[in-house]
Design goal:
Largest sheet: 4 strands, antiparallel
Radius of gyration: 21 Å
Helix content: 40-55%
Number of helices: 8
Order of helices and strands: HHHEEHHHEEHHEE
Distance between the termini: 66 Å
Length: about 260
């Protein structure tokens, strides 16, 4: 063989039978795309290390994904002085590539959340059970982001949170809020947008987590789940020495994703 095995263990189907070569190739290709979704724009070298593949194998799968319109190559941003040679090429998911993941994983998420609600008795109890799950999920996610946010300067915490969210596939940015003393945290992609459309508790819990992480009362202005072009959260400037806010946020489960009246 001119290159090492692409996977250390033989690929098998759900019933335990060995996968055919085309099926194994497709499975590996999906792992490459999923890794880009989870970790953001990546070079072939980074993907090779992450997935334990050869760079030649990764490039072959990337070429196929580019041809299918799932990923696209871009020039890697270089901060500071650029060394000799051409900058490394990074690969990022296209809009259609992200949509394919949203449809498959959100369908499972909706079914799971529906089961949680029904198991609790539907109605208010079901809604409370879903919110409890959403808060536990948001708390775990926030704990991953906390070191980066708390280590950032006070005026860069929103930006640090945006960078952490982007690494998880949210394509987030931070910018000054127009005509306001604060910033806007914008998420241009949401991996669970379709599930959040059915269960707004996901947006509510996420907003609460942002408030806790940033140490200020935040306000959710818009969400992709409600048909807006971007998830937008207003983060007001926090005066020095101001106490941390409670977990209560402006956007409730009924109004999350809508511009407040």
């Amino acid at each position: 063989m001119h290159e090492r095995q692409e996977r250390r263990t033989a690929a098998t189907a759900a019933d335990g039978s060995a996968l055919s070569a085309p099926e194994e190739q497709l499975g590996t290709r999906q792992r490459v795309a999923r890794s880009i979704l989870d970790h953001g724009p990546s070079t072939a070298a980074e993907l090779a290390v992450r997935l334990e593949l050869t760079q030649a194998a990764v490039r072959r799968h990337l070429d196929a994904l580019v041809g299918e319109g799932v990923v696209e190559p871009r020039e890697k941003r270089v901060y500071g002085s650029r060394g000799r040679g051409r900058p490394a090429k990074v690969f990022t998911l296209t809009d259609s590539g992200r949509d394919a993941f949203d449809q498959s994983y959100d369908e499972l998420a909706v079914e799971a959340l529906r089961w949680i609600a029904q198991s609790a008795g539907d109605g208010e109890r079901g809604g409370a059970a879903v919110l409890a799950f959403a808060r536990a999920r948001a708390k775990a996610q926030a704990e991953r982001y906390r070191p980066a946010v708390e280590q950032a300067a006070s005026d860069r915490r929103t930006e640090a949170l945006a960078e952490a969210l982007s690494r998880d596939g949210y394509a987030a940015t931070a910018r000054a809020a127009p005509a306001s003393a604060g910033e806007q945290l914008c998420q241009h992609h949401c991996p669970v947008a379709h599930a959040a459309e059915r269960f707004p508790q996901l947006c509510e819990a996420e907003t609460e987590a942002f408030s806790q992480l940033l140490g200020t009362h935040v306000q959710r202005l818009a969400t992709l789940a409600h048909g807006d072009g971007v998830c937008t959260t207003f983060v007001p400037d926090r005066p020095p020495g101001a106490p941390a806010p409670s977990t209560k946020t402006t956007a409730s489960s009924r109004t999350a994703g809508r511009n407040p009246a």
